Amino acid sequence: MVVIQSYMTLHFIILLERRKTKVCKELAIVSISNNGLKIAKKILSLIDGDLYCLSKYAKDDCVKFENLSEITERIFKEYKALVYIMATGIVVRSIAKVLNNKFSDPAVIVIDDGGNFVVSLLSGHFGGANELTLRLAKILNATAVITTATDVHNKFAIDVYMKKYGMLVNNYKLLKDFSVSVLNDNSMRIYIDEELEEFEFSRELTERLSKAVFDRFFQEYDLSITFRDYVHSKLILYPKVLHVGLGFTSKVSYEDLLNKINYIFKKNKLSLKSLKTISSIDRKAESESFKHLISYMNKKYLVNAISYRVEDIKPYEDKFPTSDFVRRTVGVGSVARPCAYLSSNKGKELFYEKFEGITVSVFLENPKGESW
């Protein structure tokens, strides 16, 4: 088995919203004083990153700059996290013109010149600033300052939850409204697909929101956890639990593959936001049509590709109907179904359909095994 592409990282939201054409660096530390330089080097002795210093205090091992606003405008788009060692007011003024939104802005952290306080200033949850703030405070033996309300009141943070489990959302703007409801202890109606009850994310949600009403009989919900497209809910989170296996002839185009997947998902009211992998046998996965399909689906839905060898598939092909023609062509009698079966952790087949030159199998992931 070979994972061809995998972009489901800790910063999946950032990668989805921006930087699609450029690999993003992890960390930049910006210093404007001698003492700030000492603090930065202490951090960089334990964490990998790049160091930017005001020219007046720069050493040979850092990138020099003259204007803070200009260097900020540049590095704001290049890094996942920015650490400024200076006064908070200076940082606020320097980032003001480059701010976009909480789903795409990098984590911004401020450390005072004495190394006493580490402040999570921007993108505390989605960007990971809160997590990095705690780590830096430990390194410097400093006080961490985190002001996000859910953290202050030890409440359930929906954005941290969806990031933890790699979920996509129907509308980012509704996350704020849901968080306000949690903070105010408002009554909430929550829907979880019956097939998802055994997943860890479902158990965590029911434990953390124990006062909410979990049911499947309301006409509308405040939050739904589902892989389907027909649930009436304000906020919908889509866990990555669906796996597609493909078998196809050499004449099939990228458009043909995409259209058939779209057709099956629409016909059966499944959400492509819950699609985690698309898999096939290695010789098919190397085709231009498959590569083009994965490139498109990864950019739009963060879908990963998996390639299986003949020896990976053989032990499981007889679980499904086989074809002598397919066996003569690729070495095994079935491709789509065993590939989806394997990528889903030996899960449950939801739908299978055969078209001219293409077979598509959709499996629901098995929550009890180890992930691929």
TrEMBL record:
GO terms for molecular function: hydrolase activity. It comes from the Bacteria. One of its GO terms (biological process) is cobalamin biosynthetic process. PANTHER family: COBALT-PRECORRIN-5A HYDROLASE. This is Cobalt-precorrin 5A hydrolase. The keyword Hydrolase applies. Residues 71-151 form the Cobalamin synthesis G N-terminal domain. InterPro entries: CbiG_hydrolase, CbiG_N, CobE/GbiG_C, CobE/GbiG_C_sf, GbiG_N_sf. Residues 242-362 form the CobE/GbiG C-terminal domain. Keywords: Hydrolase. It comes from Fervidobacterium pennivorans.
